[in-house]
Amino acid sequence: MKRIWKLVLAICVLTIGMASTAFAAGWTTGQGANSSRWWYDLGNGQYYGTPTSAVEWQWLDGNKDGIAECYAFDREGWMYAGTTTPDGYTVNGDGAWTVNGAVQTMAVTAGYGGTRAQAQQPGTAGKKVLTAYFSKTGTTKEAAEKIHSVAGGDLFEIRPAVAYPSGYQSTVDQARRELDQNARPAVASHVENMNDYDIILVGFPIWWHTTPMVVNTFLESYDLSGKTILPFCTSGGSGIEESMAGVRASVGNGTVGTGLTANSLTDEQIRSWLAENGL
Ligand SMILES: Cc1cc2nc3c(=O)[nH]c(=O)nc-3n(C[C@H](O)[C@H](O)[C@H](O)COP(=O)(O)O)c2cc1C
């Protein structure tokens, strides 16, 4: 570990000396005799592995494919590889936790750098995500759940104070009236801790080529300054493009990213949409 400290010290000195140089956190090998050993640099003089514990586990997505593997670090910060960890788990030669030979994985935000990186890196990994959706017949709900399983964070259902009629045509008629009147139907549910979120993924069915008005009510209920809003929709064929202007008008000083038409979604599409928006 002395080597690591020397290295970390050298990095700190270099970083101070080149204050404008961006520092890349992530997997790093040791030097000399330790050149085949790995440690995970948190980029600010810290690393995974704690002196007080024989093992520290972290889910990490080093190749940024949105799938993390779980790694164990010793007291000095070295990754365990090809062994049984002191707490009794198997890690393969790459350091990934395995069960009966199968690498264990978890869907994460692409590039996820573990729990401590979240607190320290205000970049992609540290952002707190809310997936909020309105769904009348369940299609958008299903898309939202899928997106939430990939993006992580929290899931929230936007519920109108007065439920839409059960019949399709009555809903179509009511939706048309609301659109024509630029109505703001009341919402029954409220995100109490909206200030905690950096990214809001907002899902809705396309109604009359745009957002159901209750979604505009929802967006206009909050100060979204400094937040990024990423809209997604399901539809009978319409794309999200025609809804974007309405979303932009309802988010105040929030920033609207790229929208996603989420009919028949794959995890890969979700990941690339999130990546496109810096997540
Ligand atoms: C009132 C209403 C208006 C709709 N307008 C459109 C539309 O303009 N374009 C479209 O492709 N689909 C339209 N649809 C179909 C829905 O967008 C689609 O079925 C959606 O996936 C339903 O989502 P949900 O199950 O989450 O409510 C409309 C449906 C309703 C009820």
Describe the structure.
The chain has 7 helices and 15 strands. With 279 residues, the protein is α/β, with parallel strands linked by helices. The chain folds into 2 domains: 115 residues, Cholin Binding (left handed beta-beta-3-solenoid, Ribbon); 150 residues, Rossmann fold, CATH 3.40.50. Strand 10, helix 3 and strand 11 form a beta-alpha-beta unit. The longest helix is centred in the N-terminal third of the chain and has 16 residues. The radius of gyration is 23 Å and the shape is elongated. Bound molecules: flavin mononucleotide. Flavin mononucleotide (FMN) binds next to helix 3 and helix 4.
Order of helical and strand elements: HEEEEEEEEEHEHEHEHEHEEH
Could you say what the CATH architecture of the largest domain is? 3-Layer(aba) Sandwich
**Unreliable residue runs:** 1-24, 119-124
The number of domains: 2
Shape verdict: elongated
Largest β-sheet summary? 6 strands, parallel
Radius of gyration: 23 Å
CATH superfamily label of the largest domain: Flavodoxin domain
Helix content: 25-40%
CATH topological fold name of the largest domain: Rossmann fold
Number of helices: 7
Q: What proportion of the residues form beta strands (DSSP E)?
A: 15-25%
What ligand species are in this complex? flavin mononucleotide
User: Got a strand count?
Assistant: 15
Question: What key phrases describe this protein's structure?
Answer:
elongated, Rossmann fold, 7 helices, 279 residues, alpha/beta, single chain, 2 domains, disordered N terminus, binds flavin mononucleotide, 4-stranded antiparallel β-sheet
